[in-house]
Every structure is written in structure tokens, then in C-alpha cells.
Amino acid sequence: MTDIDTSQSGAVSDGNPGTPGTDLARHDGALPDRFENPGLPAHVHRAADDDPAAAKRAEKQVATLFGLSMLATLVFLVGYFAIRDEATFYLPGVGLAKTQNVVLGLSLGFALFFIGIGAVHWAKTLMSDEEIVEERHPQRSDDRARSAAVTTVLDGGTNAQLGRRPLILYSLGGAMGLFALPFVLQIAGSLGPVDGPEELKHTIWDLENNDGKPIRLMRDPEMTPIKLDEVTNGSVFHVMPETLQKYIDENHGVLEAKAKAAVILIRLDPNDIKVAKARDWGVDGVVAYSKICTHVGCAVGLYEQGTHHLLCPCHQSTFDLTEDCKVIFGPARRPLPQLKIQVDDAGYLVAPEGFHEPVGPSFWERKR
């Protein structure tokens, strides 16, 4: 252990005999000079700084990288329109993958990658790399300093050689401009069905997926049928249609429909149900509703038996089961759609028809 001996003069000893103390404070308030300023290392010139031919090669390399970004973006745009949504292929280590998703993801990633690499190469080879040291100053600069900052920014454009390197300027503009198109395309063309709410009414619960016959309600994920006498008061079942696997097989592994078809099945005391339609569409207090929140589509799976409320865990939208899943709290603006159910001759719960209203978020209700 090292002993520290502090005297009134402010000297500190490191405990070694004969070692003078180091002044941590002086009477005049000045700090001691402990280290010499090492200064900046000698500036190393790059090939492009002294050789116009090297600078031209670097310019072409940067433009090539931006050109590759544009090419990747064009692949994204072509893939978006040309690849069928149902197309799939086997991806080692992943399994069955949608061709369009893979192509769009890789092309968009490469488009951004080449823009970034091009910008880095541009900065490393052509932009000014003179070392600058600036002393600390008060946070709020005076007007003269602010004006100088504006001048520095403008000088930065000059140092980047935008005026001298039009090939880089145009290729960067093309890469950045094209890179924005995939986002515009997705916003304009992919946020919701083209045909509006009518398309959202159609789910796997439609009887056409079962040759017009009622569809059994199946436990999810066990996919076993549910008898009426198995649903006790207050119990909750997460339900899928019996035709789920058949639909997926016939539509080349499309799983989006599974999300639309998710249903929650709950049994209440029939006397607690206040809406006649909700009571008539159920069986002895057993009711079935879409699990997809009408706000932004999260899964509504939290049930409070004491209050008969269904809660969405994402944004706390709350639905009252006794009033046909009326919204009583939160950002949702539309009740959960009810699925009409009956009991077949074997005692199993079945859906004699599909949803009568769109499931999921209600963005289509907004004025266009």
C-alpha cells in the first residue's frame, strides 16, 4: 500500500524517500505544465493529392460504386413488379422463403451498401484530409464565428471537389434519387389492399375454402377440433380454421392469410351479453371474435374475466365483450369483427359463414 503524505503547501509525496512532491495546486492558481504538446503528425499526401491521373481513377471508382447502387435499386424496382407474390424457393439454413422478399431485401441492402462505400472511398481519396485543431470556446458562438461556420460549410463543398468532379456529383445524385424510389413505391403501393375493405372481408373462414360446408374451429397450434362442452365459463381458446393447412398447401405456402384468420373464442354467461346480435351469433354464451386489433393489427389476446374486457398489449385498446367488442378505451376506433358460430351434429363448434366485415386495422376508413 502506498502512503500519501499531504503537507499544507499542497505537495503530495508518493511515499518514496527523496522523491519531491508534485504540486497539484499553486498559490497563483496556475496549473503545472506536465506534458509538452506533441503537435500533429506530419501530413501524408495521398496519391490523388499529387497525381491527377490517380485522382481521375479515384473519381471513376467512386462513380462506379454509385452506379452499382443505382443498378441494385433498379433490380429492386423490377423485382417488385416482375416477381409473383406467391413465388418461393428453398433457402439453405432458413427453409422456404418468398422469392420477392429475398430479392427486394438483398437489392435494397446492396443499394445502400454501395452508396455508403462510395461515400467512404470519396472521402478517403479525394476530399481534403488536412488535420485541423480547434481550441475549446464558449458554446454560444458570436455572430462573427457563426458567419465563419457558414463559410466553412461552403468551403467544405469546395474541398469535396463537387465543382471539379461532376461525374461524382451526378452519379451520387442518381444513386440517392433512385434509392428513394423503393420507399416511395412501398408507401404508395403497398400500404393496404387495392380494393379497399372488401378484400379484408375475405379470409380462410370463407366457405368457398371448404366446398361450401361449415368450417370447424380448431385449437391453435394443436389444430384439434373444439366441442361446445369443452369450453367452460371464462375459458379462452386461440382458434384457427380447419382449412388452414389445406389453404397454405394450395397457395404455395402463403402464411399471411393465417394472421387474418386468427380468432379468439371465449365463453361468458349469456345473461352478461348485452347486444342481441352478439348473443345470436354465439352458442350458449360462447362467442368468437377476430384477434386482430382494429388499430394497427396487433394480436388481441389478453382477457380480463372479471370485467369481460379484451386488451391489446401494443397500445392498450380495450374491447367490451358484453357489448359486441365495443371499443371502450385506447386508439382503436372500430369493434373487433365477430365470427358467427354454431354446433354441428357431432357437438363440434363450426363457422357457418365467414366474416361480414373487414378484419384488422381500419386505415381504409380514412378519406382518400
TrEMBL record:
Residues 24-36 have a biased composition (Basic and acidic residues). GO terms for cellular component: plasma membrane. The chain crosses the membrane at residues 62-83, 103-123, 167-185. Coiled coil: none annotated. Residues 1-11 have a biased composition (Polar residues). It is a multi-pass membrane protein. Keywords: 2Fe-2S, Cell membrane, Disulfide bond, Electron transport, Iron, Iron-sulfur, Membrane, Metal-binding, Oxidoreductase, Respiratory chain, Transmembrane, Transmembrane helix, Transport. Residues 260-350 form the Rieske domain. Its main location: membrane. Signal peptide: none annotated. One of its GO terms (molecular function) is oxidoreductase activity, acting on paired donors, with incorporation or reduction of molecular oxygen. Residues 1-52 are annotated as: Disordered. It is found in: Cell membrane. SUPFAM superfamilies: ISP domain (SSF50022). Belongs to the Rieske iron-sulfur protein family. Iron-sulfur subunit of the cytochrome bc1 complex, an essential component of the respiratory electron transport chain required for ATP synthesis. The bc1 complex catalyzes the oxidation of menaquinol and the reduction of cytochrome c in the respiratory chain. The bc1 complex operates through a Q-cycle mechanism that couples electron transfer to generation of the proton gradient that drives ATP synthesis. This is Cytochrome bc1 complex Rieske iron-sulfur subunit. It comes from Terracoccus luteus.
